[in-house]
Amino acid sequence: MADTSAVRYVTYIGSSAERVWHALTDADATGAYWGHSNVSDWKAGSTWEHQRTDGTRTADVVGTVLESAPPTRLVSTWVLPGADPTGEAASRVTFDIQPYDGIVRLTMTHENLPSDAEREKAAHGWAAVLSNLKTYVETGNPLPQEPWRMP
């Protein structure tokens, strides 16, 4: 039986694994295509924050880095601020970066989502963010509009 509490998204990017890793872990890069800066030292056991780029640096999501194997694998928990980032309520996001002859297959898996509504919301959001990441890595610029705002 398929795990209905998870979202998986796969995309192929004309780039190196190192550039994709950088796009996922560099605060300035994530701020450019995500609208939030992902801030951490990205070492296993470290915390991370998904901070707004509106000048407030408000963290809308926080978590703990569970695995960090640059440039091919990053696993972290995701929770709302104030929740236990290692508790049972935390969801888990895995990025697998597989290079192959000048391209990269990026597989994102978001597990342990609490409801069908949250899974649907995550599926929509991840498709938009990862499409924007792909464009950013391949061209140096994000899409001209934030794709998650598209009705």
UniProtKB/TrEMBL annotation:
Residues annotated as domain Activator of Hsp90 ATPase homologue 1/2-like C-terminal: 16-138
InterPro entries: ASHA1/2-like_C, START-like_dom_sf
Pfam assignment, any one: AHSA1
Family: Belongs to the AHA1 family.
Protein name: SRPBCC family protein
Organism: Streptantibioticus rubrisoli
Lineage, highest ranks first: Bacteria, Bacillati, Actinomycetota, Actinomycetes, Kitasatosporales
